[in-house]
Design brief:
By secondary structure, this protein is α/β, with parallel strands linked by helices. It is about 40% helix and about 15% strand. The protein is built from 12 helices and 16 strands. β6 and β7 form a beta hairpin. α3 crosses α4, α5 runs parallel beside α9 and α6 packs across α8. The longest helix is centred in the C-terminal third of the chain and has 29 residues. It starts with a helix and ends with a helix.
Length: about 425
């Protein structure tokens, strides 16, 4: 079979494909596998109840049922939903947005495929632009979306060592150089995989640098602000006409409906909509139909503040304590949990690579994600990238606690064998 360059790139054995295939095959090999590597949100009864009631209302109305299942929506997304989201953002944050500043995507992964390739790659004048990641490690799913080579560049973070075996990554502005070849800056906030939340000052500085270069600052808020608000500190939502804010309904409890939301100036939204028409034709109806009322009533903030944020904050601290007890005096560090649904563990001087640790844990029935996959744009010369793993704490308590125990045992064995 002869494939195009596009075909070879997107059908090949990329990092995210290998990891997802491994997840599927691991389940077949061991139905009792402890999944602590994926991004599925926790099952929260109050959230499920709210969506179940709304779904039943939609199904009980023949008119609503037809709108849900029987018609195409605009490739920009259903207008009433976009108007409600815009109204919510105006009321809560005084952002000057209308429905024309909002676009809907079939999941934020699909949104980033279009957005990142809009701003980087081969340019009409024959030059090449890249997406710069001001802080790497970053979201694994970005790594393979580029349609050209050398699509990402990155700046290595500075590391602040904190008390209680914790640490925190910061944007190293002393090393950050936004070159003329940069097409956009891109950050996730909270950061997947580490749970790091860029400070308001860091975001403001990145916004300033992006404006100086006349390029957008793209903020991936899939776990963040203003919803699902899996943020454990006082960070403020950020948006302006040079910011592209990408949001998602997945971590709110709806990963299966594949609904992303983009907030940007009209020029960017129109360009995205044109591209989305070609790639997806139309947007899915279910996510907007289920949540439109949450935006108009403001209930989306009530659900996140009363149920989503408290659950993950409590679970992060509980899991942190379980790791402290299990790892004892081993040379470990855990990134300060400031948001998202993961803990990021750094085993300093680990005698084996994070990939080898991942393989050993898989044999023990625990799936995590090896850290080197997340250091997009960072060369292999930094040993730190081979000493980290990402662990989800969104599963039930028994699963997380058992997984922590096995991880600690395998890490201890690795150091003993040294």
């Amino acid at each position: 079979m002869k494939l195009s360059a596009f075909g070879e790139k997107f059908t090949g054995r990329t990092g995210i494909i290998e990891l997802m295939d491994d997840l599927g095959s691991a389940l077949n090999e061991n139905p009792d596998m402890l999944f602590m590597g994926g991004g599925n949100p926790a099952q929260l009864p109050a959230i499920e109840k709210a969506f179940s009631l709304r779904l039943q209302q939609l199904l009980d109305s023949s008119e609503q049922r037809h709108k849900l299942l029987g018609i195409y929506q605009s490739p920009q997304g259903e207008r009433d939903f976009r108007a409600e989201v815009a109204g919510f953002l105006r009321q809560q944050f005084d952002w000057p947005v209308t429905a024309n500043n909002i676009a809907v995507a079939n999941g934020s992964q699909a949104a980033f495929f279009v957005l990142l390739n809009m701003f980087a790659g081969e340019m009409p004048d024959g030059s090449h632009r890249s997406i710069h990641l001001p802080l790497s490690p970053e979201y694994l799913g970005y790594g393979d979306v580029g349609l050209s080579e050398q699509f990402f560049t990155a700046t290595r973070p500075s590391i602040e060592r904190l008390g209680d075996q914790q640490f925190k990554y910061h944007v190293d502005f002393s090393q950050l150089e936004v070159k003329k070849s940069a097409g956009a800056l891109c950050v996730s906030r909270p950061t997947n995989p580490t749970g790091n939340v860029l400070t308001d000052e860091e975001v403001a500085h990145l916004d300033e640098l992006a404006r100086e270069r006349d390029i957008p600052l793209i903020i991936d808020g899939a776990y963040g602000l203003p919803f699902p608000s899996i943020v454990f500190n006082d960070a403020r939502p950020h948006w302006n006409d040079n910011t592209v804010l990408a949001l998602s309904l997945s971590k709110l409890g709806l990963p299966g409906v594949r609904t992303g939301i983009i907030v940007a100036r009209e020029e960017i939204i129109q360009a995205y909509t044109n591209a989305n028409t070609i790639v997806n034709l139309a947007c899915g109806n279910l996510g907007p139909a289920l949540t439109r009322g949450l935006f108009s009533s403001g209930e989306i903030l009530t659900l996140t503040r009363q149920h989503v944020t408290p659950f993950y904050q409590q679970r992060s601290q509980q899991t942190l304590q379980w790791f402290r007890q299990a790892l004892g005096d081993l040379p470990y560090h855990i990134h300060k949990p400031e948001g998202a649904i993961f803990l990021w563990l750094w085993f300093e001087g680990l005698p084996i690579t994070s990939q080898e640790l991942y393989e050993r844990l898989k044999q023990r029935g625990v799936l995590v994600v090896p850290g080197h996959n997340f250091f997009i744009g960072i060369g292999d010369g930094w040993q730190h990238k081979h000493e980290c793993i990402r662990v989800s704490y969104a599963q039930d308590e028994a699963t997380v606690q058992q997984g922590v125990k096995i991880i600690a045992e395998e890490v201890a064995r690795a150091y003993e064998e040294g």
